[in-house]
Structures are given as structure tokens and as C-alpha cells.
């Protein structure tokens, strides 16, 4: 028995609340199906690629009866992609549901992510194992990985493993790319009449896997509260020392939801939103000028300190940078296969790449510091894209802002002092102990996943709605994975993927930031959220993100 902290010991005793109809028990709910659906875009292409799981209806569970099968159904579960708080509770909900439905059911966890189901590496999850991981952060119960499931041989090996364990369903817990894999696997299993169903669960702290049916991806609540605590601490320090500007980069490669939510929780002086930068077609120089103007404004009031929040993926939202990076992604997809290229020195690589870029991109690439050039040429992620988390955007901005301020000082428009500190908060939030909201939400997602399996559904994403209300009013169901898909360029080819949800500039969340941004810039309006609370009044312990609250208020108005 491993040692655990007093808090973890107490948290293991926490019983998560179940969503709406699910609270009546897995054998006392009934499935209701809505109208058939289509994909969010590229309908003909998606239909052609997924003929067996396309156009399925939205599913919903209610309590009018019990018509779900209780036959033995062994299930395999996969944790895929980066960690997010609450993953263990998804597995706990799945485990409790299948054991309640039929005590002979077994749950097999595939080790190390999707590769586990291909290589036949697994762990049978038992009461003893499961009880050690309830309400804990991390994915260490079975581990995770980023192997993509998209090839015929992988599917064939997965089928062999499932047959050997008498597995009738697979649950993939992951983000948009992981659930795209789930859809590919579901289609293959259906096409080959394997009798194996595939269900996904929406995970990502980035918050970019959501739509009308998926209100929030799990882990976002806990991660943003964790980052907000850290930033609140830094704000208190800045307000005490009054001598540093803190440039803080926050997780969120393709969308700025984390940065936006944390800004609303902490009220910093500067908040950059990638989607806004792209919409306004701001150049790197314009962003630097904007930041320098706020620093100069505060300096004129004797405030040579402040907080700037920067989304991780900012560099790809800057139009000129986005064009250059897209060209680099396509170019490196070819060059990295060439042994001759691998033998070049770094400077020789720069020269070769510049010769193959268009004039504007070549000029921009040459203008960047050598450290940023090197980071742009690092190994691509599994999807063929630049690893923006390894690009020190916060340090690039500090360097360029410092140069801009020096120029302004010579012009007499800036008389302050600029001392900087750089931070990147990413891994700090991925494995935090889940908040009460994430503990409840994740448990319901897993429990609901088995309800979808019992209903004979495949190619669905577990869905829990109405999540700003008490759990008793949450609505459980499922949304077809193909409903969220479109075609995008990956590794130089057009491929089906779940469309990412970006920050909506005309939405209530961004508008809330926009309304207060100038006031926060000039004044010290800092909020210090403190640590996540697990015990105490519901208004402190169970409250969810400002993002979800604002979006749900708008949704209710539009009903």
C-alpha cells in the first residue's frame, strides 16, 4: 500500500454526485434518440469516410423505464493524449457502472495509451486498484500516450486483443485528436461487423473540445483554478515588491480559453487573446507596441510592475507567423525525411529553409532571434505541427518589449524602469487533484459512457449537459462523433478531425474581458483566488468556471 497525504486520504472518501437520470442506477434508465445529425462541415467527405457511423441521432437518458441490457460486457479503456484532472474519476464512473450492471463484467485498462490496445498490454482493474485512484489527479492508473490509431494493421491487432479478452466495447478518454481516433476505430469495427462498440469521453484542459452538446471538456475547471491560484500569488508578490513585470505564458496551443478564463479570475494588467490577434490581423510589432504602451502608461503613474498573460499558441495566431509556420510544417514534413538535411548544421538548415520560403516568410524568419528559430525547427508533434509549448513566446515578447521601451525612452515617451520575470504554467495544472466539479463531472462522464455501451451505441462522445445547475439537474446522453468533424490539413494532407472550438469574440466570455480590460490595465484590480477548496459551503467548493457560467447564461437567453 503506497503512502498518501491526509488530503488524498480524505478525498478518496468523497462520493461524486451523478448526473440526473444516472443517479437512479445504471439499470433504471431509458434511452431516447433525437433527429439524425450531420457533420459540422465537409459533410460529403465525412459521410464517405464514415458511412457506418455517420448521421446518427443525439442520445439522451431519462428515468421513464429500464430497457438496457444487463448481459456480460467486458470493456477496455484507454487514456489518450496529455493528462487532465479527473481522468481517474472517468474510469471510476465507468467501473462502478459496469460492475453495478453485472458483477461479472470486467474492465481492462490498456497501458501507455492507444499503443496498449495494439500491443496487448493491459491491466484488469479491480476494486482494490480503483479505490486507490478515486478523486485523484493524473493518469498514472494505466498511463497515457499519443499513438494515433488510424492504420489497418493497428485496428486488426486491436481486434485480436479484444477478442482474447472478450471485450465488447472500448472507451477512449481524450481530446479532439484522440476522439477522432475513436471515430476511426468505431467506423472500422462497425464496417467489419466485430460487435465491438467505441465510445469517447471529452478531455482537455485547453477547453477547445466543446459545442452545444459538450458544454465543457473535463480538466478545464481544475487546471484554470490551479493556474489562477499561481497567478494570484504572483500578483500579490508584484503588488508587494512593485518592481517586476511578470510575463506569464499559459497552456492552450490552439485556443485561448485557458488564458481568458484565468484573466477573468485574476484581473491582470495585460491579457493577449490569440483569436483576437488573428481577427484584427495584428503583426508581432503591433502586439509589442500595445504591451509597451500599457507598461509606459503604468510607469507614468509610478507603477513599474504588472502582470501580462500570454496564450501558449499566440505565435500561430499572428497572421504573418501563422503563414510562416504553416509553410514550415509542410516544408519540414518533406525535409526531415531527407538524410542529407539531417546532416546539415543549424545555420545551414536556416539558409536552406529561407531559400524555400516566400519572401515575406523568409524575411520574418530571418528577423527572429536564433533561439526562436531553433525552437521553430524542433521535432514536430504527432500531428505534424510545430510544438508551440517549446517556443518561449514570453521571452521573445520580453526581449522585443524591452527594445521598444528603450526606443521610447530615447524619444522621451517612456521614463520608467522595466525589470522582467518569465513564467510558463502548463504541467502545473495537468495533474492537479480534481475540483469537486471535475470529480463529479468526470464520474458522470464515465458512468454515462457505460450507459451508452449498454444501449448498443458506437461512435458517440459521452455528454453531460446543464452543468451550471446542481448535478441532480444535469442531463446525460451522447453526441455522434461525426457531428463534430471537418476536414483539415495534417502532415501536408487533408484528414478528418474534430473541429476545435475557439474563443468567440462576439461571445459573452470575451466581451466580459473586453469591458474591463482598460480598467485592469491602468489600475491594480488584482484578485487572489487562493487554492482549490474541497470542503465547505457549496458556493465556494462547487462553483465552476466563469466561462461556463457566462456561456450558459447566454444559452438560456437564446432558448
Explain how this protein is built.
With 559 residues, this protein is an alpha/beta fold. It has two domains: 32-219 and 434-490, Rossmann fold; 220-425 and 507-553, Phosphofructokinase domain (Rossmann fold, 3-Layer(aba) Sandwich). The protein is 44% helix and 15% strand. It contains 23 helices and 15 strands. The protein has helices at residues 6-11, 43-49, 87-101, 115-119, 127-131, 152-164, 176-191, 220-241, 257-266, 274-279, 284-300, 314-317, 319-335, 339-342, 346-356, 359-367, 370-376, 393-411, 427-430, 436-454, 508-522, 538-541, 546-558, and strands spanning 30-36, 57-62, 74-79, 107-110, 122-125, 167-174, 197-202, 245-250, 270-271, 306-311, 420-425, 460-465, 475-480, 485-490, 493-498. It has a nine-stranded mixed beta sheet with strand order 1-2-13-12-7-6-3-4-5, sandwiched between helices. A hairpin with a 2-residue loop joins strand 14 (485-490) and strand 15. Helix 9 (257-266) crosses helix 21. It is globular, with a radius of gyration of 24 Å. The model has no long low-confidence stretch (mean pLDDT 94).
Amino acid at each position: 500500500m503506497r503512502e498518501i497525504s491526509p488530503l488524498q486520504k480524505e478525498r478518496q472518501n468523497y462520493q461524486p454526485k451523478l448526473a440526473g437520470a444516472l443517479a437512479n442506477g445504471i439499470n433504471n434508465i431509458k434511452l431516447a434518440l433525437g433527429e439524425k445529425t450531420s457533420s459540422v462541415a465537409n459533410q460529403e467527405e465525412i459521410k464517405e469516410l464514415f458511412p457506418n457511423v455517420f448521421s446518427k441521432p443525439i442520445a439522451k437518458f431519462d428515468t421513464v423505464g429500464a430497457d438496457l441490457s444487463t448481459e456480460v460486457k467486458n470493456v477496455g479503456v484507454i487514456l489518450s493524449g496529455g493528462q487532465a484532472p479527473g481522468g481517474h474519476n472517468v474510469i471510476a464512473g465507468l467501473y462502478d457502472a459496469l460492475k453495478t450492471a453485472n458483477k461479472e463484467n470486467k474492465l481492462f485498462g490498456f497501458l501507455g495509451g492507444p499503443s496498449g490496445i495494439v500491443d496487448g498490454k493491459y491491466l484488469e482493474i479491480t476494486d482494490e486498484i480503483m479505490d486507490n485512484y478515486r478523486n485523484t489527479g493524473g493518469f498514472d492508473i494505466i498511463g497515457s500516450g499519443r499513438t494515433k490509431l488510424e492504420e489497418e494493421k493497428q485496428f486488426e491487432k486491436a481486434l485480436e486483443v479484444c477478442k482474447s479478452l472478450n471485450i465488447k466495447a472500448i472507451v477512449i478518454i481524450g481530446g479532439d485528436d484522440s476522439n477522432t481516433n475513436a471515430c476511426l476505430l468505431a467506423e472500422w469495427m462497425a464496417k467489419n461487423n466485430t460487435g465491438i462498440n467505441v465510445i469517447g469521453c471529452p478531455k482537455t484542459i485547453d477547453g477547445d473540445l466543446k459545442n452545444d452538446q459538450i458544454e465543457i471538456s473535463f480538466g478545464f475547471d481544475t487546471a484554470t483554478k490551479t493556474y489562477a491560484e499561481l497567478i494570484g500569488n504572483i500578483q500579490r508578490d508584484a503588488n508587494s515588491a512593485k518592481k517586476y513585470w511578470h510575463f506569464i505564458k499559459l497552456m492552450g496551443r490552439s485556443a485561448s480559453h485557458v488564458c481568458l478564463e484565468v484573466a477573468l479570475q485574476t484581473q491582470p494588467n495585460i491579457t493577449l487573446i490569440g483569436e483576437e490577434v488573428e481577427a484584427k490581423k495584428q503583426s508581432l510589432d503591433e502586439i509589442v507596441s500595445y504591451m509597451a504602451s500599457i507598461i509606459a502608461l503604468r510607469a507614468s503613474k509610478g507603477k513599474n510592475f504588472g502582470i501580462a498573460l500570454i496564450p501558449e499558441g499566440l505565435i500561430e495566431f499572428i497572421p504573418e507567423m501563422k503563414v510562416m509556420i504553416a509553410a514550415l510544417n509542410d516544408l519540414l514534413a518533406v525535409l526531415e525525411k531527407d538524410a542529407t538535411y539531417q546532416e546539415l548544421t543549424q545555420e545551414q538548415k536556416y539558409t536552406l529553409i529561407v531559400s524555400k520560403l516566400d519572401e515575406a516568410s523568409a524575411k520574418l524568419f530571418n528577423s527572429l532571434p536564433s533561439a526562436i528559430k531553433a525552437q521553430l525547427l524542433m521535432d514536430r508533434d504527432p500531428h505534424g505541427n510545430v510544438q508551440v509549448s517549446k517556443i518561449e513566446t514570453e521571452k521573445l515578447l520580453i526581449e522585443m518589449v524591452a527594445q521598444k521601451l528603450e526606443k521610447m525612452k530615447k524619444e522621451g515617451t517612456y521614463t520608467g524602469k522595466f525589470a522582467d520575470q518569465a513564467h510558463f504554467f502548463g504541467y502545473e495544472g495537468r495533474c492537479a487533484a480534481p475540483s469537486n466539479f471535475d470529480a463529479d463531472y468526470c464520474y458522470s462522464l464515465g458512468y454515462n459512457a457505460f450507459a451508452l455501451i449498454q444501449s448498443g451505441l458506437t461512435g458517440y462522445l459521452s455528454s453531460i449537459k446543464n452543468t451550471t445547475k446542481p448535478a441532480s439537474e444535469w442531463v446525460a446522453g451522447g453526441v455522434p462523433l461525426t457531428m463534430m468533424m471537418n476536414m483539415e490539413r495534417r502532415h501536408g494532407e487533408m484528414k478528418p478531425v474534430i473541429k476545435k472550438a475557439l474563443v468567440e469574440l462576439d461571445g459573452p466570455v470575451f466581451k466580459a474581458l473586453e469591458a474591463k480590460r482598460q480598467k485592469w490595465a491602468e489600475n491594480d484590480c488584482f484578485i487572489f483566488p487562493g487554492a482549490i477548496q474541497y470542503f465547505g459551503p457549496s458556493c465556494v467548493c462547487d462553483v465552476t468556471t466563469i466561462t461556463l457560467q457566462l456561456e450558459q447564461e447566454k444559452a438560456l437567453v437564446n432558448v
